[in-house]
Amino acid sequence: LSQLLEECNVSAEEQKNNSTSRPKRRKSSDSEGSSTSIQENRSSRILFLTDMESSEGSRDEFSLLDTVKQNASKSLWTSIMGIGSDLNIGLVERISINLGCFYSSVCNPEEFRKVMAQEFDFDVTPVAFNINLKLNSDKWQINKGYGSPEVYNLTNGINISTEFPLATDANGDRFGGIYVFKLEQKDGLSSSSSSSSYGRKKTKQSQDNELNLELSFTDTNGIRHSSTDTVIANLTQPNHSNPSLRKSVALIKLVDMQQNYINTDENPDQHRINIDNFTKFREHFVNEMKDAGDHSYNTTNISFLEIIDKIIDLERTEVLRIEKEKAVKLMKQTRKKSKKNDGMQDLEEHLICSICLSILSDPVQLSCLHDVCKTCFYSLAVTSSPHSS
């Protein structure tokens, strides 16, 4: 991959030097303070169709990352289309945060056709760079971000390297990704005034839930834009009126449950708790997706339910294994307590008929070395005795 990137980089540089009709570029500063060229009317992009599995380990990955970053500074963008579900997620995340980069994934031919035919123009045309969003509030702060690796770490505010336009469906409605941010109260503040009001007159409660947002970004011509907005959020009741948000929250809960499941210490009681939690959540997830008008959980996105079902099956298997181990252990303990001595137990085993389980009478030894009564042996040979099973 890195070799191919280098070749494309050289080719792009040659075209730039030999061409006299290419549009001029304007400079804009990225989030790291370096100068980034953003072309006004035309851009170059490398599209990879790959499973993102490196053939040479970390050395190859670092080389690829360095090349992608250098190309981004020259307006040579990179797009990654993951083929299948077995991807190098860590490498994908590190690449996608570079300026102008875009990542998507497909799991079947239908998704591939849709992405390449219907969404391709949107996925290769960035509309904003170095996006920064700040939340100013006396009471609330952002606890966690969802929707992109770039918003997971919020130590320096919300910073997104590149944003792309959303595609539209047959009805003209836009569809695509969404960023969701979870708010929490700042330290030292009580939750007694967490409710809010949508009335025109500001109350103490509405002032507490007043969120001042500052947004800034650089457009494709290198011009920096900024805007501010104030919203009064209803932070006590969930918003069920927005299907997209409702679906996003359901997916976030699924991801959080999986992370908690992986990080939870294993103990016998936890397996039953996991079965109960994931069984209940499965029903909740399906209902939320239905109410949001998304039935893809049964078709293209059936992997969500498959993951839940696999976890439930795995936990049930663990419960059965633990119960079996307990039963075997209890049986051994019982035998140990009732055993008089080894010699007496061996003697008792040789004196018992394997069919009637009584003291042997006129014993006969079978080819399997079991001892049986002579009458039991003949009855077994002539008819099907109840003990023969």
Taken in chain order, the helices and strands follow as HEEEHEHEHHEEEEEEHEEHHHHEEH
Number of beta-strand segments: 15
Judged by helices, strands and strand pairing, the structural class is: alpha+beta
Strand order of the largest sheet: 8-6-12-13
Strand content: 15-25%
Verbal overview:
The chain is an alpha+beta fold. It is built from eleven helices and 15 strands. The strands form six sheets. Strands 8-6-12-13 form a four-stranded antiparallel sheet. A three-stranded parallel sheet has the order 3-4-5, with helices on both faces. A two-stranded antiparallel ribbon has the order 1-2. A hairpin with a 5-residue loop joins β1 (25-29) and β2 (35-39). α1 (2-18) packs parallel to α2 (58-72). The longest helix has 36 residues, at 303-338. The protein is elongated, with a radius of gyration of 33 Å. Residues 19-39, 190-202 and 383-389 have low confidence and may be disordered.
Key structural traits:
4-stranded antiparallel sheet; elongated
List the helices and strands and how they pair.
Layout: H1 2-18, E1 25-29, E2 35-39, E3 44-50, H2 58-72, E4 76-83, H3 89-96, E5 102-106, H4 109-117, H5 120-123, E6 128-136, E7 140-146, E8 158-163, E9 167-168, E10 174-175, E11 180-185, H6 204-208, E12 210-218, E13 224-232, H7 243-263, H8 268-291, H9 303-338, H10 342-351, E14 363-365, E15 371-373, H11 374-382
Parallel strand pairs: 3-4, 4-5
Antiparallel strand pairs: 1-2, 6-8, 6-12, 7-11, 9-10, 12-13, 14-15
Helix pairs in contact: 1-2, 7-8, 8-9
